[in-house]
Protein backbone atom coordinates (compact mmCIF):
# COMPACT_ATOMS: atom_id res chain seq x y z
CA UNK A 1 0.00 0.00 0.00
CA UNK A 2 1.51 3.31 -1.11
CA UNK A 3 -0.39 6.49 -0.22
CA UNK A 4 0.78 9.64 -2.00
CA UNK A 5 -0.36 13.24 -2.01
CA UNK A 6 -2.45 12.47 -5.09
CA UNK A 7 -4.21 9.72 -3.15
CA UNK A 8 -5.36 12.21 -0.53
CA UNK A 9 -6.40 14.70 -3.20
CA UNK A 10 -8.49 12.02 -4.88
CA UNK A 11 -10.15 11.26 -1.54
CA UNK A 12 -10.90 14.92 -0.77
CA UNK A 13 -14.71 14.60 -1.13
CA UNK A 14 -14.75 11.73 1.38
CA UNK A 15 -12.28 13.43 3.72
CA UNK A 16 -14.15 16.75 3.71
CA UNK A 17 -17.51 15.05 4.28
CA UNK A 18 -16.01 13.05 7.17
CA UNK A 19 -14.51 16.21 8.66
CA UNK A 20 -17.91 17.91 8.35
CA UNK A 21 -19.48 15.10 10.39
CA UNK A 22 -16.86 15.55 13.11
CA UNK A 23 -17.33 19.33 13.16
CA UNK A 24 -21.12 19.04 13.36
CA UNK A 25 -20.78 16.58 16.24
CA UNK A 26 -18.40 18.90 18.11
CA UNK A 27 -20.68 21.87 17.42
CA UNK A 28 -23.65 20.00 18.89
CA UNK A 29 -21.64 19.08 21.98
CA UNK A 30 -20.62 22.72 22.55
CA UNK A 31 -23.97 24.38 21.87
CA UNK A 32 -27.24 23.38 20.26
CA UNK A 33 -28.18 25.84 17.53
CA UNK A 34 -30.35 24.69 14.66
CA UNK A 35 -29.39 27.35 12.11
CA UNK A 36 -25.67 27.12 12.88
CA UNK A 37 -25.49 23.33 12.58
CA UNK A 38 -27.56 23.34 9.39
CA UNK A 39 -25.28 26.00 7.90
CA UNK A 40 -22.14 24.11 8.92
CA UNK A 41 -23.54 21.00 7.22
CA UNK A 42 -24.40 22.82 4.00
CA UNK A 43 -21.00 24.57 3.87
CA UNK A 44 -19.17 21.26 4.38
CA UNK A 45 -21.17 19.50 1.70
CA UNK A 46 -20.60 22.37 -0.74
CA UNK A 47 -16.85 22.22 -0.09
CA UNK A 48 -16.91 18.48 -0.71
CA UNK A 49 -18.78 19.08 -3.95
CA UNK A 50 -16.29 21.71 -5.09
CA UNK A 51 -13.36 19.45 -4.18
CA UNK A 52 -14.51 17.03 -6.89
CA UNK A 53 -13.21 19.51 -9.47
CA UNK A 54 -9.78 19.48 -7.81
CA UNK A 55 -9.82 15.69 -7.40
CA UNK A 56 -10.59 15.25 -11.10
CA UNK A 57 -7.06 16.45 -11.91
CA UNK A 58 -5.37 13.39 -10.38
CA UNK A 59 -7.71 10.58 -11.41
CA UNK A 60 -7.71 7.66 -11.87
CA UNK A 61 -6.23 6.82 -8.48
CA UNK A 62 -6.24 3.36 -6.91
CA UNK A 63 -6.27 4.24 -3.21
CA UNK A 64 -5.37 0.95 -1.51
CA UNK A 65 -6.86 -2.27 -2.93
CA UNK A 66 -10.25 -1.19 -1.57
CA UNK A 67 -11.02 2.07 -3.40
CA UNK A 68 -10.79 3.33 -6.97
CA UNK A 69 -11.34 7.04 -7.52
CA UNK A 70 -11.99 7.71 -11.20
CA UNK A 71 -14.37 9.77 -13.32
CA UNK A 72 -17.16 7.29 -12.69
CA UNK A 73 -16.75 7.55 -8.90
CA UNK A 74 -16.60 11.35 -9.00
CA UNK A 75 -19.80 11.52 -11.09
CA UNK A 76 -21.75 9.49 -8.56
CA UNK A 77 -20.14 11.37 -5.68
CA UNK A 78 -21.47 14.59 -7.18
CA UNK A 79 -24.98 13.11 -7.53
CA UNK A 80 -24.96 11.93 -3.90
CA UNK A 81 -23.65 15.24 -2.56
CA UNK A 82 -26.23 17.25 -4.52
CA UNK A 83 -29.00 14.99 -3.23
CA UNK A 84 -27.71 15.29 0.33
CA UNK A 85 -27.54 19.07 0.02
CA UNK A 86 -31.15 19.12 -1.13
CA UNK A 87 -32.20 16.95 1.82
CA UNK A 88 -30.27 19.18 4.25
CA UNK A 89 -32.06 22.31 3.04
CA UNK A 90 -35.41 20.54 3.27
CA UNK A 91 -34.55 19.37 6.80
CA UNK A 92 -33.88 22.95 7.88
CA UNK A 93 -37.36 24.04 6.78
CA UNK A 94 -39.02 20.86 8.03
CA UNK A 95 -37.50 20.94 11.54
CA UNK A 96 -37.92 24.68 12.05
CA UNK A 97 -40.58 24.30 14.75
CA UNK A 98 -39.91 20.73 15.85
CA UNK A 99 -40.00 20.51 19.65
CA UNK A 100 -37.29 17.88 20.12
CA UNK A 101 -33.58 17.84 19.31
CA UNK A 102 -33.06 18.94 15.73
CA UNK A 103 -29.30 19.12 15.29
CA UNK A 104 -28.59 15.38 15.22
CA UNK A 105 -30.46 15.08 11.93
CA UNK A 106 -27.60 16.86 10.15
CA UNK A 107 -24.96 14.65 11.78
CA UNK A 108 -26.81 11.51 10.68
CA UNK A 109 -27.30 12.92 7.19
CA UNK A 110 -23.60 13.66 6.69
CA UNK A 111 -22.55 10.26 8.07
CA UNK A 112 -24.92 8.50 5.67
CA UNK A 113 -23.60 10.59 2.77
CA UNK A 114 -20.03 9.58 3.70
CA UNK A 115 -21.03 5.92 3.45
CA UNK A 116 -22.54 6.61 0.03
CA UNK A 117 -19.29 8.24 -1.16
CA UNK A 118 -17.30 5.20 -0.02
CA UNK A 119 -19.65 2.93 -1.99
CA UNK A 120 -19.09 4.85 -5.22
CA UNK A 121 -15.34 4.13 -5.00
CA UNK A 122 -15.56 0.54 -3.77
CA UNK A 123 -13.87 -2.18 -5.79
CA UNK A 124 -13.57 -4.73 -2.99
CA UNK A 125 -16.15 -6.63 -0.93
CA UNK A 126 -14.74 -5.21 2.32
CA UNK A 127 -15.17 -1.59 1.29
CA UNK A 128 -18.59 -2.42 -0.16
CA UNK A 129 -19.78 -3.74 3.18
CA UNK A 130 -18.18 -0.93 5.20
CA UNK A 131 -19.69 1.73 2.95
CA UNK A 132 -23.09 0.07 2.93
CA UNK A 133 -23.28 -0.15 6.71
CA UNK A 134 -22.01 3.40 7.14
CA UNK A 135 -24.80 4.46 4.79
CA UNK A 136 -27.53 2.31 6.36
CA UNK A 137 -27.03 2.66 10.12
CA UNK A 138 -27.60 6.46 10.31
CA UNK A 139 -30.70 6.06 8.12
CA UNK A 140 -32.31 3.81 10.74
CA UNK A 141 -32.25 6.71 13.19
CA UNK A 142 -33.27 9.23 10.52
CA UNK A 143 -36.39 7.24 9.61
CA UNK A 144 -37.40 7.01 13.30
CA UNK A 145 -36.36 10.60 14.07
CA UNK A 146 -39.93 11.70 14.84
CA UNK A 147 -40.18 8.86 17.35
CA UNK A 148 -43.21 10.41 19.05
CA UNK A 149 -45.10 9.66 15.85
CA UNK A 150 -46.13 6.00 15.77
CA UNK A 151 -45.58 5.58 12.02
CA UNK A 152 -42.08 7.05 12.16
CA UNK A 153 -40.97 4.75 14.97
CA UNK A 154 -42.61 1.77 13.28
CA UNK A 155 -40.89 2.57 9.98
CA UNK A 156 -37.50 2.91 11.67
CA UNK A 157 -37.79 -0.45 13.43
CA UNK A 158 -39.00 -2.22 10.27
CA UNK A 159 -36.20 -0.77 8.21
CA UNK A 160 -33.55 -1.62 10.82
CA UNK A 161 -34.61 -5.27 11.20
CA UNK A 162 -35.12 -5.99 7.52
CA UNK A 163 -31.99 -4.10 6.50
CA UNK A 164 -29.96 -6.11 9.03
CA UNK A 165 -31.31 -9.32 7.49
CA UNK A 166 -30.39 -8.06 4.01
CA UNK A 167 -26.87 -7.23 5.23
CA UNK A 168 -26.57 -10.77 6.61
CA UNK A 169 -27.56 -12.17 3.20
CA UNK A 170 -24.98 -9.94 1.54
CA UNK A 171 -22.24 -10.94 3.97
CA UNK A 172 -23.03 -14.64 3.61
CA UNK A 173 -22.89 -14.30 -0.17
CA UNK A 174 -19.46 -12.67 0.08
CA UNK A 175 -18.29 -15.50 2.35
CA UNK A 176 -19.39 -18.12 -0.18
CA UNK A 177 -17.54 -16.37 -3.02
CA UNK A 178 -14.45 -16.11 -0.84
CA UNK A 179 -14.73 -19.81 0.03
CA UNK A 180 -14.81 -20.64 -3.68
CA UNK A 181 -12.17 -18.24 -5.00
CA UNK A 182 -10.12 -16.97 -2.05
CA UNK A 183 -10.56 -13.44 -3.46
CA UNK A 184 -12.65 -10.42 -2.43
CA UNK A 185 -11.67 -7.85 -5.06
CA UNK A 186 -14.24 -7.22 -7.81
CA UNK A 187 -11.76 -7.66 -10.66
CA UNK A 188 -10.25 -10.82 -9.14
CA UNK A 189 -13.70 -12.34 -8.62
CA UNK A 190 -14.58 -11.41 -12.18
CA UNK A 191 -11.56 -13.31 -13.53
CA UNK A 192 -12.45 -16.35 -11.43
CA UNK A 193 -16.13 -16.33 -12.43
CA UNK A 194 -15.13 -16.17 -16.09
CA UNK A 195 -13.00 -19.31 -15.60
CA UNK A 196 -14.11 -22.77 -16.61
CA UNK A 197 -14.42 -24.06 -13.01
CA UNK A 198 -16.56 -21.19 -11.75
CA UNK A 199 -20.06 -22.57 -12.18
CA UNK A 200 -20.39 -24.54 -8.98
CA UNK A 201 -23.19 -24.21 -6.42
CA UNK A 202 -21.13 -21.94 -4.16
CA UNK A 203 -20.77 -19.35 -6.93
CA UNK A 204 -24.45 -19.31 -7.83
CA UNK A 205 -25.48 -19.25 -4.18
CA UNK A 206 -23.00 -16.48 -3.37
CA UNK A 207 -24.07 -14.22 -6.24
CA UNK A 208 -27.75 -14.94 -5.55
CA UNK A 209 -27.41 -14.02 -1.86
CA UNK A 210 -25.58 -10.82 -2.77
CA UNK A 211 -28.30 -10.03 -5.29
CA UNK A 212 -30.94 -10.51 -2.60
CA UNK A 213 -29.10 -8.19 -0.20
CA UNK A 214 -28.59 -5.46 -2.78
CA UNK A 215 -32.13 -5.97 -4.11
CA UNK A 216 -33.46 -5.12 -0.66
CA UNK A 217 -31.38 -1.94 -0.48
CA UNK A 218 -32.75 -0.94 -3.90
CA UNK A 219 -36.31 -2.07 -3.01
CA UNK A 220 -36.57 -4.22 -6.12
CA UNK A 221 -39.36 -6.81 -6.29
CA UNK A 222 -39.72 -9.22 -4.53
CA UNK A 223 -37.56 -7.51 -1.87
CA UNK A 224 -39.72 -4.37 -1.84
CA UNK A 225 -42.22 -5.01 0.95
CA UNK A 226 -40.56 -2.58 3.39
CA UNK A 227 -40.66 0.37 1.02
CA UNK A 228 -44.17 1.88 1.36
CA UNK A 229 -44.26 1.62 5.18
CA UNK A 230 -40.80 3.14 5.60
CA UNK A 231 -41.46 5.93 3.10
CA UNK A 232 -44.74 6.76 4.82
CA UNK A 233 -43.23 6.74 8.32
CA UNK A 234 -40.03 8.62 7.51
CA UNK A 235 -39.98 12.43 7.68
CA UNK A 236 -40.29 13.86 4.17
CA UNK A 237 -36.61 14.98 3.88
CA UNK A 238 -35.49 11.51 5.03
CA UNK A 239 -37.78 9.93 2.45
CA UNK A 240 -36.07 12.10 -0.16
CA UNK A 241 -32.64 10.86 0.98
CA UNK A 242 -33.79 7.22 0.95
CA UNK A 243 -35.21 7.55 -2.54
CA UNK A 244 -32.21 9.37 -4.02
CA UNK A 245 -28.75 9.36 -2.42
CA UNK A 246 -29.14 6.01 -0.67
CA UNK A 247 -30.22 4.10 -3.76
CA UNK A 248 -27.86 5.87 -6.16
CA UNK A 249 -24.89 4.83 -3.98
CA UNK A 250 -25.95 1.17 -4.06
CA UNK A 251 -26.52 1.27 -7.82
CA UNK A 252 -23.08 2.83 -8.29
CA UNK A 253 -21.30 -0.05 -6.55
CA UNK A 254 -23.51 -2.63 -8.31
CA UNK A 255 -22.55 -1.18 -11.69
CA UNK A 256 -18.86 -1.22 -10.82
CA UNK A 257 -19.12 -4.86 -9.78
CA UNK A 258 -20.83 -5.69 -13.09
CA UNK A 259 -18.19 -3.73 -15.02
CA UNK A 260 -15.30 -5.56 -13.34
CA UNK A 261 -17.03 -8.95 -13.14
CA UNK A 262 -19.25 -9.05 -16.27
CA UNK A 263 -19.63 -12.83 -16.09
CA UNK A 264 -21.48 -12.40 -12.77
CA UNK A 265 -24.69 -11.35 -14.53
CA UNK A 266 -24.61 -13.70 -17.50
CA UNK A 267 -26.57 -16.87 -18.12
CA UNK A 268 -29.21 -17.79 -15.58
CA UNK A 269 -28.43 -14.79 -13.35
CA UNK A 270 -29.11 -12.46 -16.24
CA UNK A 271 -32.52 -14.11 -16.66
CA UNK A 272 -33.13 -13.61 -12.96
CA UNK A 273 -32.30 -9.90 -13.29
CA UNK A 274 -34.68 -9.64 -16.23
CA UNK A 275 -37.47 -11.25 -14.19
CA UNK A 276 -36.76 -8.89 -11.27
CA UNK A 277 -36.85 -5.87 -13.60
CA UNK A 278 -40.22 -6.84 -15.12
CA UNK A 279 -41.69 -7.72 -11.71
CA UNK A 280 -40.50 -4.42 -10.20
CA UNK A 281 -42.02 -2.39 -13.04
CA UNK A 282 -45.38 -4.12 -12.97
CA UNK A 283 -45.74 -4.58 -9.20
CA UNK A 284 -44.57 -1.05 -8.40
CA UNK A 285 -46.95 0.60 -10.86
CA UNK A 286 -49.95 -1.62 -10.15
CA UNK A 287 -49.72 -1.17 -6.38
CA UNK A 288 -49.27 2.60 -6.79
CA UNK A 289 -52.69 2.72 -8.49
CA UNK A 290 -54.56 2.08 -5.24
CA UNK A 291 -52.62 4.49 -3.01
CA UNK A 292 -54.25 7.47 -1.33
CA UNK A 293 -51.06 8.39 0.54
CA UNK A 294 -48.60 10.39 -1.56
CA UNK A 295 -45.45 9.10 0.14
CA UNK A 296 -46.58 5.49 -0.28
CA UNK A 297 -47.36 6.28 -3.92
CA UNK A 298 -43.85 7.68 -4.41
CA UNK A 299 -42.46 4.60 -2.67
CA UNK A 300 -44.17 2.20 -5.06
CA UNK A 301 -43.24 4.48 -7.92
CA UNK A 302 -39.56 4.21 -6.92
CA UNK A 303 -39.82 0.41 -7.15
CA UNK A 304 -40.98 0.78 -10.75
CA UNK A 305 -38.33 3.38 -11.60
CA UNK A 306 -35.48 1.18 -10.42
CA UNK A 307 -37.03 -1.62 -12.45
CA UNK A 308 -36.58 0.64 -15.48
CA UNK A 309 -32.93 1.15 -14.55
CA UNK A 310 -32.47 -2.61 -14.25
CA UNK A 311 -33.70 -3.00 -17.83
CA UNK A 312 -30.68 -0.99 -19.01
CA UNK A 313 -28.38 -3.21 -16.92
CA UNK A 314 -29.91 -6.39 -18.34
CA UNK A 315 -29.40 -5.00 -21.86
CA UNK A 316 -25.65 -5.10 -21.21
CA UNK A 317 -24.51 -3.19 -24.29
CA UNK A 318 -22.20 -0.27 -25.01
CA UNK A 319 -24.62 2.39 -23.69
CA UNK A 320 -25.69 0.56 -20.52
CA UNK A 321 -23.57 2.58 -18.10
CA UNK A 322 -24.44 5.85 -19.81
CA UNK A 323 -28.17 5.01 -19.82
CA UNK A 324 -28.14 4.11 -16.11
CA UNK A 325 -26.29 7.32 -15.18
CA UNK A 326 -28.66 9.50 -17.25
CA UNK A 327 -31.71 7.85 -15.71
CA UNK A 328 -30.38 8.20 -12.17
CA UNK A 329 -29.56 11.89 -12.67
CA UNK A 330 -33.03 12.64 -14.00
CA UNK A 331 -34.66 10.53 -11.27
CA UNK A 332 -32.73 12.25 -8.47
CA UNK A 333 -33.59 15.74 -9.69
CA UNK A 334 -37.28 14.88 -10.08
CA UNK A 335 -37.65 12.96 -6.82
CA UNK A 336 -35.94 15.69 -4.80
CA UNK A 337 -38.48 18.15 -6.18
CA UNK A 338 -41.44 15.86 -5.47
CA UNK A 339 -40.41 15.12 -1.89
CA UNK A 340 -39.49 18.78 -1.52
CA UNK A 341 -43.10 19.75 -2.14
CA UNK A 342 -44.24 17.24 0.51
CA UNK A 343 -41.68 18.58 2.98
CA UNK A 344 -42.68 22.19 2.40
CA UNK A 345 -46.36 21.34 2.70
CA UNK A 346 -45.59 19.63 6.03
CA UNK A 347 -43.30 22.26 7.53
CA UNK A 348 -42.83 23.91 9.93
CA UNK A 349 -43.25 20.57 11.66
CA UNK A 350 -46.78 20.06 12.95
CA UNK A 351 -46.91 16.35 13.64
CA UNK A 352 -47.88 13.93 10.89
CA UNK A 353 -46.77 14.93 7.38
CA UNK A 354 -49.23 16.30 4.85
CA UNK A 355 -48.89 13.15 2.81
CA UNK A 356 -52.49 12.16 2.00
CA UNK A 357 -53.49 12.90 -1.59
CA UNK A 358 -56.56 14.67 -0.17
CA UNK A 359 -54.25 17.21 1.49
CA UNK A 360 -53.29 18.42 -1.99
CA UNK A 361 -56.84 18.90 -3.22
CA UNK A 362 -57.25 22.51 -4.35
CA UNK A 363 -53.58 23.33 -3.77
CA UNK A 364 -53.43 25.12 -7.11
CA UNK A 365 -55.86 27.78 -5.84
CA UNK A 366 -53.87 28.39 -2.64
CA UNK A 367 -50.30 27.86 -3.81
CA UNK A 368 -50.01 28.24 -7.58
CA UNK A 369 -46.19 28.43 -7.60
CA UNK A 370 -45.68 25.38 -5.40
CA UNK A 371 -48.33 23.55 -7.42
CA UNK A 372 -46.41 24.41 -10.57
CA UNK A 373 -43.34 22.72 -9.11
CA UNK A 374 -45.45 19.73 -8.11
CA UNK A 375 -46.98 19.39 -11.58
CA UNK A 376 -43.54 19.61 -13.23
CA UNK A 377 -42.23 16.80 -11.01
CA UNK A 378 -45.24 14.55 -11.65
CA UNK A 379 -44.93 15.06 -15.41
CA UNK A 380 -41.22 14.26 -15.25
CA UNK A 381 -41.84 11.09 -13.23
CA UNK A 382 -44.35 10.09 -15.90
CA UNK A 383 -41.73 10.67 -18.63
CA UNK A 384 -43.56 13.42 -20.54
CA UNK A 385 -41.47 15.04 -23.34
CA UNK A 386 -39.65 18.31 -22.52
CA UNK A 387 -38.93 17.04 -18.99
CA UNK A 388 -35.88 15.28 -17.58
CA UNK A 389 -37.84 12.06 -17.04
CA UNK A 390 -38.38 11.70 -20.78
CA UNK A 391 -34.63 11.77 -21.45
CA UNK A 392 -34.03 9.07 -18.85
CA UNK A 393 -36.69 6.75 -20.26
CA UNK A 394 -35.51 7.41 -23.81
CA UNK A 395 -32.04 6.13 -22.88
CA UNK A 396 -33.43 3.05 -21.13
CA UNK A 397 -35.61 2.19 -24.14
CA UNK A 398 -32.66 2.76 -26.49
CA UNK A 399 -30.49 0.36 -24.48
CA UNK A 400 -33.28 -2.23 -24.53
CA UNK A 401 -33.89 -1.89 -28.28
CA UNK A 402 -30.19 -2.29 -29.12
CA UNK A 403 -30.11 -5.60 -27.22
CA UNK A 404 -33.52 -6.81 -28.36
CA UNK A 405 -35.00 -7.03 -24.85
CA UNK A 406 -38.57 -6.95 -26.12
CA UNK A 407 -40.25 -8.42 -23.04
CA UNK A 408 -38.53 -5.87 -20.83
CA UNK A 409 -39.47 -3.06 -23.21
CA UNK A 410 -43.08 -4.22 -23.21
CA UNK A 411 -43.03 -3.99 -19.41
CA UNK A 412 -41.54 -0.48 -19.64
CA UNK A 413 -44.33 0.66 -22.00
CA UNK A 414 -47.11 -0.91 -19.94
CA UNK A 415 -45.62 0.37 -16.67
CA UNK A 416 -45.21 3.88 -18.04
CA UNK A 417 -48.85 3.90 -19.19
CA UNK A 418 -50.04 2.85 -15.74
CA UNK A 419 -47.75 5.41 -14.12
CA UNK A 420 -49.13 8.17 -16.31
CA UNK A 421 -52.61 7.43 -14.96
CA UNK A 422 -51.84 7.71 -11.26
CA UNK A 423 -49.54 10.72 -11.69
CA UNK A 424 -52.29 12.53 -13.62
CA UNK A 425 -54.80 11.54 -10.93
CA UNK A 426 -52.74 13.36 -8.30
CA UNK A 427 -52.20 16.28 -10.69
CA UNK A 428 -55.93 16.68 -11.32
CA UNK A 429 -56.67 16.45 -7.59
CA UNK A 430 -54.31 19.36 -6.89
CA UNK A 431 -56.27 21.54 -9.33
CA UNK A 432 -59.78 20.78 -8.05
CA UNK A 433 -61.26 23.79 -6.20
CA UNK A 434 -62.28 23.15 -2.60
CA UNK A 435 -63.59 26.33 -0.94
CA UNK A 436 -63.21 26.46 2.81
CA UNK A 437 -60.90 23.44 3.07
CA UNK A 438 -58.45 23.51 5.98
CA UNK A 439 -54.90 24.32 4.88
CA UNK A 440 -52.18 21.75 5.42
CA UNK A 441 -49.39 23.65 3.73
CA UNK A 442 -46.73 25.82 5.31
CA UNK A 443 -46.19 29.55 4.94
CA UNK A 444 -43.55 29.79 2.28
CA UNK A 445 -41.63 32.90 1.31
CA UNK A 446 -39.93 32.01 -1.98
CA UNK A 447 -37.39 34.75 -1.48
CA UNK A 448 -36.13 33.54 1.90
CA UNK A 449 -36.88 29.84 2.37
CA UNK A 450 -33.91 27.76 1.25
CA UNK A 451 -36.24 24.80 0.77
CA UNK A 452 -38.36 26.82 -1.63
CA UNK A 453 -35.31 27.90 -3.58
CA UNK A 454 -34.14 24.28 -3.73
CA UNK A 455 -37.37 22.98 -5.29
CA UNK A 456 -37.31 25.91 -7.75
CA UNK A 457 -33.76 24.90 -8.73
CA UNK A 458 -34.93 21.29 -9.25
CA UNK A 459 -37.78 22.54 -11.45
CA UNK A 460 -35.32 24.54 -13.54
CA UNK A 461 -33.09 21.46 -13.93
CA UNK A 462 -36.05 19.26 -14.89
CA UNK A 463 -36.85 21.49 -17.85
CA UNK A 464 -33.21 22.29 -18.68
CA UNK A 465 -32.30 18.61 -18.95
CA UNK A 466 -35.52 17.90 -20.81
CA UNK A 467 -34.99 20.65 -23.40
CA UNK A 468 -31.18 20.87 -23.59
CA UNK A 469 -29.61 17.65 -22.25
CA UNK A 470 -26.34 17.85 -24.18
CA UNK A 471 -24.09 19.30 -21.41
CA UNK A 472 -25.11 16.70 -18.84
CA UNK A 473 -24.89 13.93 -21.46
CA UNK A 474 -21.34 14.92 -22.37
CA UNK A 475 -20.37 14.99 -18.70
CA UNK A 476 -21.83 11.51 -18.14
CA UNK A 477 -20.18 10.11 -21.28
CA UNK A 478 -16.78 11.41 -20.14
CA UNK A 479 -17.27 9.93 -16.66
CA UNK A 480 -18.50 6.49 -17.73
CA UNK A 481 -16.05 5.93 -20.58
CA UNK A 482 -13.52 4.47 -18.12
CA UNK A 483 -15.85 1.55 -17.46
Note the topology:
Layout: H1 5-10, H2 12-30, H3 34-55, E1 61-63, E2 67-69, H4 71-94, H5 104-121, H6 125-143, H7 150-181, H8 186-193, H9 201-217, H10 227-233, H11 236-260, H12 268-288, H13 294-315, H14 320-346, H15 363-366, H16 368-382, H17 388-403, H18 406-431, H19 450-467, H20 470-480
Antiparallel strand pairs: 1-2
Which structural category do the helix and sheet elements fall into? mainly alpha
Which radius of gyration do the C-alpha atoms yield? Answer: 21 Å
Low-pLDDT ranges: 440-448
Return the average pLDDT rounded to an integer: 88
Number of strands: 2
Q: If helices are DSSP runs of H or I spanning 4 or more residues, what is the number of helices?
A: 20
Estimated helix fraction: over 70%
Report on the structure:
The model is unreliable at 440-448 (pLDDT under 50). A two-stranded antiparallel sheet has the order 1-2. It contains 20 helices and 2 strands. It has a domain at 267-483. Helix 4 (71-94) runs antiparallel to helix 11. A hairpin with a 3-residue loop joins strand 1 (61-63) and strand 2 (67-69). It is mostly helical and 483 residues long. It has helices spanning 5-10, 12-30, 34-55, 71-94, 104-121, 125-143, 150-181, 186-193, 201-217, 227-233, 236-260, 268-288, 294-315, 320-346, 363-366, 368-382, 388-403, 406-431, 450-467, 470-480; strands at residues 61-63, 67-69.
